[in-house]
Structures are given as structure tokens and as C-alpha cells.
Amino acid sequence: MSELPKTVRLVEVGPRDGLQNESAHLPAAMRADLIVRLADAGLTHIEAGAFVSPRWVPQMAATAEVMSLLPARAGVSYPVLVPNEKGLDAALEAGAGEIAVFAAASQSFSQRNINCSIEESLERFAPVTERALAEGLKVRGYISCVLGCPYEGEIDAEAVAWVARELRGLGCYEISLGDTIGVGTPGQARNLIRRLARDVPLSELAVHYHDTYGQALANIYASLLEGVSVVDASVAGLGGCPYAAGASGNVASEDVVYMLNGLGIRTGVDLDRLVAAGNFISEQIRRPSRSRVALARSGAKASEVA
Ligand SMILES: CC(C)(COP(=O)([O-])OP(=O)([O-])OC[C@H]1O[C@@H](n2cnc3c(N)ncnc32)[C@H](O)[C@@H]1OP(=O)([O-])[O-])[C@@H](O)C(=O)NCCC(=O)NCCSC(=O)C[C@@](C)(O)CC(=O)[O-]
């Protein structure tokens, strides 16, 4: 496989993966405001939050309130993370149409993130996915640490493939491969996708790369060349990972859209509006955007003024 896809579906994870790790705990109305701006920019899959323990991740408290503030919009979905049946109850109550369960390819990360082994997590997800599917929800599956773990180092692609098969067996329509600490390089990303493609159709794989080592765009490009066409990204490069010290945010959505535009790949996203949404949230959390595109544009504006 060496042809690039003609279109890429972006899954915007900034309001969840991003904000869950920002020290600023934003009120629900501001989180909803960000999500609306992202939808205005043309994003159709925007993670709205997580129904997890507020003791574990206080930034995601009030996800139900965020959901209640989101206008229904044709063609736009607002998935939420759910770790167990309690989370599913809350998601159903909030009217979610899509949930994501999240496993890991590393036992140590699984323990630190959701307080159980990988096997236990899959057992926990079984009734969650069964009930969610019966209720008509879509279910996405995440796998963390696919290219490295903060506690165990290298991760065997066979371990990733096993978890992917299990999640698929539970009914996940798509498996998102998380380089949680952003250590992977393009050759590793390519080899992983090739290995995974033996178990999961390429059309059901998504990539979710953090940018800690500055490799995320290159890893996305390598994955696109292998036939992946769904990419997770976080506006303004928000975030990191609460259980992976030093991990930076996901690759910035603005930078991904800029690259895809340059490759002639359609996303349906308006880059100007996306940059504006990223600048908005960066101002709210009082730190500069981590999007290189946003920074380049603000630099260009500043020099115009001077
Ligand atoms: C899974 C648990 C709950 C286990 O945590 P636990 O302590 O083992 O759970 P528990 O069942 O013993 O419950 C402990 C307390 O949490 C409450 N609780 C229990 N469940 C819920 C729930 N759903 N919603 C709200 N509250 C809940 C429960 O009611 C109880 O409250 P208490 O009686 O002590 O007052 C906990 O470990 C947890 O919430 N972890 C979430 C961690 C998390 O959100 N991590 C970030 C998301 S994963 C990620 O970012 C990676 C990803 C997806 O982006 C991909 C990548 O980049 O790698």
C-alpha cells in the first residue's frame, strides 16, 4: 500500500484527551463553547468528555453538563469515554450516541490508568459494549501505549494485535491506536499498522499520536501510506496524559489539517476557523498554542502589524 487516501476523517480529541490533562479545570460552558467552535470549523467527530471517576480525572467532571449544552447537529457526533457500567449509565443518561472504551497494550499502564489488568478491563468492557450496542450506541475502542509504555518501555506489536482483536470482538467499530507518550517513529508506526492489518481491516483502524518527540506528523504520514484514513488530533495540541509523566499533547489538529491540505486530502475542515478555535482555548487556559501552524500565523500577523 503506498497511495494516500483521498479523504481523512479527523477525530477531534482536544475537549477530552486535551483538557483532561490541562491544569486549568474549565467550566462546562467553556468546554461546550470550544466544542461548538470545533463543529463550526467542520469537525464531525468531537470527543466531548469522559464519564470516569472525578477523583481520578477531575478535569472531566461535569461531562453531563457539557453534553446538555451541545446543540444537536446533523452529521456531528460527540463521543464520550466510558470505563465501566457506571460510566455507561451516565453516558446513556446524558444522551450520548457514541462511547469509547479504553484499554492498553501494557499491563503497568492499564493498572495505573484504570486500576486493573488488561484482561480485567476487557471483562469489564464486555457488558458495557453489549448494553451500549443494544441501546443503539456506536462503540469505539482505544489501545494505549501501542508504540511504547512509560513504565515498560517497548511494547510487542503482538500484544497490541491481541487487544485489538479482543476489542473488535466486543463490537468496537474502530480501533484507535494510541502512542500515548509520543515515542514512536515512522518506521515503527508503519510496521505496527502492517501487523495490525492482518487482524483488523484498515478501514477500522485509527491513529492517535502524541507529539512528545516531534514525530506525530511523520507517524501520521507513514500510517496514511499504509492505508489508514482516520486520524485523532487535539486542537492547539492540548493535553498530555495524566498517567504518563512528560507526555505532551496529541498532535495539533491545525498542523494535521495543514499537512492534509498540502497533500490534497479532503477533511471538510476549515483551517482558519480551526486555528481560531485553538487560539480561543489557548487564551482561556492561558498558555500558548502548541500548534506550529497557529504559531506561524500569529507570527505572520505580528510582523504585518510591525
Ligand atoms: C476506571 C476507574 C473508575 C476505576 O477506579 P477504581 O477506584 O478501581 O473504581 P471503583 O469501582 O472501586 O470506584 C471508586 C470510586 O469511583 C467511582 N466511580 C467508578 N466508576 C465511575 C465512573 N465511571 N464515573 C464516576 N465515578 C465512578 C465509584 O463510585 C467510587 O466512588 P466512591 O464510592 O469512592 O465515592 C478509575 O480508574 C477511572 O476513572 N479511571 C479513568 C482514567 C482516565 O480517565 N484516564 C484518561 C483516559 S485514557 C487516555 O487518555 C488514553 C487515550 C484514550 O487518550 C489513548 C492514548 O492516548 O493512549
From TrEMBL:
Segments crossing the lipid bilayer: none
Domain Pyruvate carboxyltransferase: 8-275
CDD domains for this protein: DRE_TIM_HMGL
Annotated GO MF terms: lyase activity
E.C. numbers: 4.1.3.4
Enzyme class, broadest EC rank: lyase
Pathway membership: Metabolic intermediate metabolism; (S)-3-hydroxy-3-methylglutaryl-CoA degradation; acetoacetate from (S)-3-hydroxy-3-methylglutaryl-CoA: step 1/1
Catalytic activity: (3S)-3-hydroxy-3-methylglutaryl-CoA = acetoacetate + acetyl-CoA
Keywords from the named record: Lyase, Metal-binding
PROSITE patterns registered for this protein in UniProt: HMG_COA_LYASE, PYR_CT
One Pfam family recorded for the sequence: HMGL-like
InterPro entries: Aldolase_TIM, HMG_CoA_lyase_AS, HMGL, PYR_CT
Family the UniProt entry places it in: Belongs to the HMG-CoA lyase family.
Annotated protein name in UniProt: hydroxymethylglutaryl-CoA lyase
The organism of origin for this protein: Fodinicurvata halophila
Organism taxonomic ancestry: Bacteria, Pseudomonadati, Pseudomonadota, Alphaproteobacteria, Rhodospirillales
